[in-house]
Structure to design on (319 residues):
């Protein structure tokens, strides 16, 4: 991997709520996000902190995480408490698309993408730990993350892939022939072919210098951006090789201990061959636990499960 370049912060935009976990840019340069109190927000004029304005689009009644804008302007929402939702951004109507699979309630839905055939793919990060105990899954290395598919006609989703290490962000390839999935617990991106003899089988795509969270594709021909919620933690890598009983004991301790995110933050962008296009980092950052990144105009916008607003950074020069 190339030597990282500095992530250049410009300003912070407060949202009046904590935890804008995912950020996505619309065609008009506005940014949409979901916050801890269940609201879906749209932020205007992020380039100027003095004139930035926030409007409420909807309230999910749960905890919205990953977002996906649809061609008609509606929004797919992965809600950690309610499942996979569709939000009408015009009148705020919230509709549940899926809240269970094979008789098991869906919880900790994390990220979703919609493909041109109308199918929706989405991730479940953990079947053992809810959102507020997410660190337990990272420490235990439970491997209970899933990739699911909802057919265009709806119905109950099907499980395409099981055994993922904290399945998180999701992005399609430029031609729609495969998906890229972030496995936060293993610091890697994984490739899932959708066609051909290897369809549905996980393949290595890219090893990363930190724990990837949400993914966002910068247009059909652009790279896939990954937010790094934490740098690699060597003691954690060692723990993941320990027996399950040891990991579970460590996880029980971790969920009871106070947590403070690392001051080192970063984002990476990769092309459809898994090659690094950008790797940006900042140490001693005042904005911590970057869980999402998107591009709008000349800016990178960062979201965070931890912070009460979004950070606006300089967009790197094209490579």
């Amino acid at each position: 991997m190339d030597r990282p370049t500095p992530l250049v912060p410009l300003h912070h935009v407060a949202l009046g709520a904590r935890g804008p976990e995912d950020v996505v840019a619309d065609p008009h340069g506005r940014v949409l996000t979901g916050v801890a109190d269940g609201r879906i927000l749209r932020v205007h004029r992020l380039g100027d902190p003095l004139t930035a304005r926030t409007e409420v689009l909807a309230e999910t009644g749960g905890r919205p995480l990953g977002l996906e804008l649809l061609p008609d302007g509606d929004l797919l929402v992965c809600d950690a408490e309610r499942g996979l939702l569709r939000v009408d951004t015009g009148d705020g109507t919230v509709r549940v698309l899926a809240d269970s699979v094979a008789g098991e309630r869906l919880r900790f839905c994390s990220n979703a993408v919609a493909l041109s055939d109308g199918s929706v793919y989405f991730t479940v990060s953990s079947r053992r730990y809810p959102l507020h105990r997410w660190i337990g899954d990272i420490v235990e290395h439970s491997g209970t993350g899933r990739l699911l598919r909802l057919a265009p006609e709806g119905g109950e989703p099907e499980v395409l892939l099981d055994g993922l290490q904290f399945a998180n962000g999701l992005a399609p390839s430029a031609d729609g022939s495969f998906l890229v999935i972030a496995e936060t617990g293993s610091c890697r991106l994984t490739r899932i072919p959708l066609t051909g003899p290897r369809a549905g089988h996980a393949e290595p795509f890219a090893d990363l210098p930190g724990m990837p969270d949400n993914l966002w594709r910068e247009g059909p021909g652009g790279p896939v951006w990954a937010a790094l919620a934490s740098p690699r933690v060597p003691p954690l890598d060692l723990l993941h090789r320990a027996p399950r009983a040891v990991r579970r004991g460590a996880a029980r301790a971790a969920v009871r201990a106070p947590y403070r995110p690392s001051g080192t933050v970063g984002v990476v962008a990769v092309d459809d061959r898994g090659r690094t296009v950008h790797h940006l980092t900042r140490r001693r950052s005042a904005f911590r636990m970057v869980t999402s990144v998107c591009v709008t105009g000349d800016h990178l916008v960062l979201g965070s499960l931890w912070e009460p607003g979004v950070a606006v950074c300089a967009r790197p020069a094209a490579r």
User: Anything to note?
Assistant: Residues 244-256 form the longest helix (13 residues). The chain has one domain: 5-314. The chain has a mean pLDDT of 96. The helical segments are 134-140, 234-239, 244-256.
